[in-house]
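#dry-run=false #mode=assembly
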Amino acid sequence: MTSRNEAEELYRALDDLADSIPAAPIRMDDILHATRKRRARRRIAGITAGCALLLAPLSYLATVGGSTSSVVSPAASAPPNTARVVAPGEKITVAPGVKMWLTQNGKQYLQRSSETTPWCQTLAGAKPGANLAGLDSNDHRAWLSGGYIGNGVPDHAQIRTLSGTTHATVITLAGNPGWGAWYAQTRTTNPTPTDDKHPKAFLRNVTVYDTAGKTIVTTNTPPAADGTQGRISPVGTGESASLNP
Amino acid sequence: MKHESDDADFADFAGARWGRLLRIAFMLTGDFHEAEDLVQVTLIKVCDHWRRIPDGEVDLYVRRALINNYRSRLRKRRVVQFLTSLVPERPDSGHAETVEHRIALAQALNSLSSRQRAAVILRYWDDMSEQQTAEILGCSPNTVKVHTRRALAALRTHPALATYAPILTGETR
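#status=ok
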């Protein structure tokens, strides 16, 4: 049994811990906006399902009746503009429970929820290149993030992994500082990247493009000679930027 | 528009509960940003179902949603790997003893199972009864008793808290 004193001590200790968090205002607009999007998605899904049910018999009859219809292929779409200019210290969620932000002094920070101390690497002033800094995965998806250095106004990025090619979002600070970060999510392989002995091998290439479609920087991660580990060109300066574990 | 009046009601509710929910989430996750995300996502789901939640059950409902989201996140998570060697930059810390004490308690809470942690926080900080805690956790009151008893036993013997007697060391019993 727990005595009253013990319960009070525990309450005080928990209260002290709870009160140590900084004050944060509620972002009500974000909550209401996200809720409206959820509702709209549900409505659209319902309407789409209804239309599909109505059109299915017609489509079947048209096929059986021998009528031909031309299949309109979707127009080749240009890669979406996925570059964002963020404020120094603005936190972006790059994986469940993982935040990333950039600072004015040229650093990229990553912080996972279970750790109070963020990880960082210095990007400003380093040689052009791109790297993989964080990798998180579950059974179906992998979340990747890293930094890049290269002159140009970034427009979008593309990464190639063992499970295919996918677009990545680029973030940079205002004023085109010549460095920034990228993050993306993709399908996982089996076994998942973080099950793998050498998770860096999951990422094969990072390419950042400018607004004219020209390459700002591209970095391949070829397998090492022993076939065990992909290596990405180091981009950072200082001890925390080394890619060697 | 019905949704608009619902949204206004919800905004009043969420504004009043935000601070408390954030604190519960912080004690569950041990991380401020994760806690903020967790409460934000929970409130989006609660707002979506706002009209269907019976008036007298909103507080239990939102806590149940919070705990379920928290446990769901834990299930989905795999290890996060930062692949570069890590030399963390530590901020200067004042009030060393208080900070150490908080860290010790956070470590001890982190060593509990997610259900034990939730049971302790709801029972001993959020002032929920055994019955209410059972409803939130989706188990029987007896199971809540078992969770809290085991959690307290684990906290009493946790090495991080050993230097902070008499809190939870049993000396006050």
